[in-house]
Amino acid sequence: MEKKVKRIGVLTSGGDAPGMNAAVRAVVRASIARGIGCIGIRRGWNGLITSDFVPLTSSSVSHIINKGGTMLYTARSLEFMEEAGRAKALATCRLLGLDGIVAIGGDGTFRGALAISRQAAKDGMDLRVVGIPATIDNDIGCSHYTIGFDSACNTAIECIDKLRDTMQSHERCSVVEVMGRHAGYLALYVGISVGATAVLIPEREPDFEKDIVEKIRRARLAGTTHYMVVVAEGAGSAIEISQRIHDELGIDPRVTVLGHIQRGGSPTARDRETASRMGYEAVKVLAEGTGNQIIGIQNGLLTDIEMEEALAMTKPFQMDRYQILEALTNSCGPDF
Ligand code: F6P
């Protein structure tokens, strides 16, 4: 039987991603459209522990769809990983009369969501939790796409295009480190999109000779006088890679670590639209659904997958894209 949800809490947690604000806005507006109240929990799961919240109305989320960052702030909470921390969080939920939570973030956020939903069930509380995937790493198993990825790719591409100008003038090699501690999606997409000479990702054990040296040599033979090496942070340090290139090839690369700049900026159309759809869906699932779910996108369509099942899913590495990258970088040799 459908349960009447009266009040939803919404939070953003973990590393921020462009489009989080658009998702918060969608959750608030979709709740209001269904006659459900909405409360913003600030600073991630910490906000539930410390009772750090703000009531949200339609106008409180005006003019944020285009803004990077998150109006609710974000944090990673160690205390929430402990049962005692979650007990405090559940006490806040009771106090606020929350019967649903929408948690916007990545893997760590969803593990927190699963833990609190289990603890609530153990305590006999009817509290449902729905997750919305938002991380520039695009590394959530149950969704082909995570909010923020497209914006981060575009930010990195814009920076690398600028670097290419000066690398071309000075006939230099650039080693650019992009984010992705455990996942190479950003490096892969960016590498393809900037026409990189070589790309290193954490999913593949790097073979320095084959993956970098050989590629630069081929490009050099083809007459190229500047080279762009893109490294995911989880695949190695750009500084060390640059030193090795210097030692092996006798060239003097310049290193750029793009860092947190990739997490900021106005979200792209794809991220605003995806965030709006996912936010709407999360409220729909809370209002009509029966359990704890994670929203996802599979082949362009929205999915709601039961949380435990969703968290057990792994994202296969995109070998097809890697092969494209390999083909396009390896053919950088003499024409025949
Ligand atoms: O947002 C994901 C991510 O960007 C990772 O790629 C990166 O390793 C990590 O966050 C760094 O986040 P922070 O500096 O906030 O710990």
In short, what is this structure?
This protein is α/β, with parallel strands linked by helices and 336 residues long. The protein contains eleven helices and eleven strands. It folds into two domains: 7-148 and 267-298, Rossmann fold, CATH 3.40.50.450; 151-264 and 318-330, Phosphofructokinase domain (Rossmann fold, 3-Layer(aba) Sandwich), CATH 3.40.50.
Q: Estimate the global geometry from the Cα principal axes.
A: elongated
Number of strands: 11
User: Which regions contain 5 or more consecutive residues with pLDDT less than 50?
Assistant: none
Report, as a whole number of angstroms, the end-to-end distance: 69 Å
In terms of DSSP E residues, the strand content is 15-25%
Can you walk through the features of this model?
- With 336 residues, this protein is α/β, with parallel strands linked by helices.
- Helix content is 43%, strand content 17%.
- It has a 7-stranded mixed sheet, sandwiched between helices.
- Helix 1 packs parallel to helix 9 (269-288).
- It is elongated, with a radius of gyration of 22 Å.
- The termini are far apart.
